[in-house]
Design brief:
about 0% strand, mainly alpha, about 75% helix, two-stranded antiparallel ribbon, 2 strands, 3 domains
Length: about 625
Amino acid sequence: MRETKFIQQNKDKWRAFDEALGQEGRDPEKLDDLFVQVTDDLSYARTFYPNRSVRVYLNGLAQRVFTALYRNRRSSAHRLVTFWTDELPQLVYEARREFRFSFLIFALAMLIGMVSSASEPEFLRVILGDSYVDMTLENIEAGDPMAVYKEKGAFEMSLGITINNLWVSFLTFVTGAFFTIGSIAVLIRNGVMLGAFQYFFIERDLFWESFLTVWIHGTLEISAIIIAGSAGITMGKGLVFPGTFNRMQAFQKSARRGIKIMVGIAPIIIMAGFIEGYLTRHTETPDIIRGLFIFLCLAFVLLYFVWYPRIKARIGFDQPVRDTRLTPDAKLDLSFTKIRSAGELFTDLFVVYKRHFGTFLIGSVASAFLFIAFAFLPGNALPEDRFSFPPGIYLGLENMGQFFNNPAAPLIPFAHVLSFSFIGLLVFRKLGQEERSDYKRSPGIAFINLMPPMGALTALLYTNDWYTIFLVVLFAVVPAIWGYCSYREGRNSLSAFSKSLSLWSPNFSRVFSLSFTLLLVGLLFYSLVNTVLAWFFLDLVTWVVSLDQAGMDQLSVVLLAFLSVWLLYLVSAMLLLGGGLLYYTLLEIQEAPGLRQRIQEIGLQTRIRGLEKERR
């Protein structure tokens, strides 16, 4: 192509690029696309017009794009601010129908609870339990009907309530995976309980006192549960109404939106727990002050979750909701030289997890058998003396602590280290294959090098105390990054720890975001299994295996322990895979190997606009 024709074909595009560089509020993602196009044109010009002015012009334009791109890339702090000021309000506005539906369901359930309590006196005891009702009646007779909020210390009560409220809100959300029916059921259950509870005090002429006491924290708490219900309904809609996507793709898209809404209400739930622990107990506070505080909490909820999203929608949001575009995963080639956003990381994680699920499934089953061997073979104690599964709890998180810190089975931490290392070896090998640079590591050496980081992961879970959940949220991904750094770079554990520390410590917000997201996914796994399905599975075993009742009880403990750790190892594969993918993002942020390679390849590309250049 002659130079004049090349310039004629592209001059309008270059002029638009030049104007875009002079605009305020430039989008780094658009600048990144611009950089690719400009360097493509520059490569063509260097090849065919090396001594012409067009090459000089395009070289200068590429330098300007590069400078603008990496000078104006938004910081994580700015990203956090825009989440609260723009992205979350946009998500709330787009889910406004689900919010209204969730509110109406909860309000109707409250009404049902009140009417049922009025028509059937025993209904309240069925809903709240005899012990709670009797305790409240004793408090009323003692002249302090709200004494239940004063029984424990402020900090202990605040912490316990916060954890419980987080769990209730999370359960309300994740059960939306059952085609929205689960979220609706949880909303109805909680609404009926609140309605029955409120009528209990109305019937005894204590409405005003109960209202001022309960709703001083309940305004935020109940609002969070309703919003969590709308997030669950939003997630479930992806399965019910997939639109032009297949159901799995639609579910991925709606689940990411729901998770972001849940992240948005987490501070509200924590604040409600603080208020209930420290402020609700002061029932002697003048009514006018308590009423004003309730009004302020309600005003905040209405302003931020109702009025502000509407105003932003009229003005116009800064940009569309991020991370909701789906790409086909059957033949998707992942990029390992880009900085992934949280949504992109989450999507890529499930793409790889889905591709190699069979390998991870087999690895988790083998690891679960290894755990069972270490847990039950040594010693003479019976299985029921080593692990406990109270009826009605099934495989809930209430029982997970015993699988890490259990005096009756002292070898299980070592079993976890071996199992996590084995699963890590499988996961990291598959991730290396995805990068198409499957590192030929000696399995034995790689396994040994993985044991210290997997030991750190085991120690994190071994604590088995109230703060364990916070440690997991903050640091669960760190051993995964450490382990993958060791595997990919062929480092020993100590060297890999130093390198990984330099990668994740300056970007801890990304580590926290991934840990929190994967914790939610792990809880989803256990919430789905924490049903009568576990006991149904045991009933099937009884039809096949013929043992006396004592033998079946022991076998049930072994099987439930196997199911618990099998699920744990399936989730751990996801955790390790997420840490490996995050490693590439952190490496690109800190050392920019992909960017360096792209800069070196400017002018050296052999493919130009679909044409192969003959090598010389």
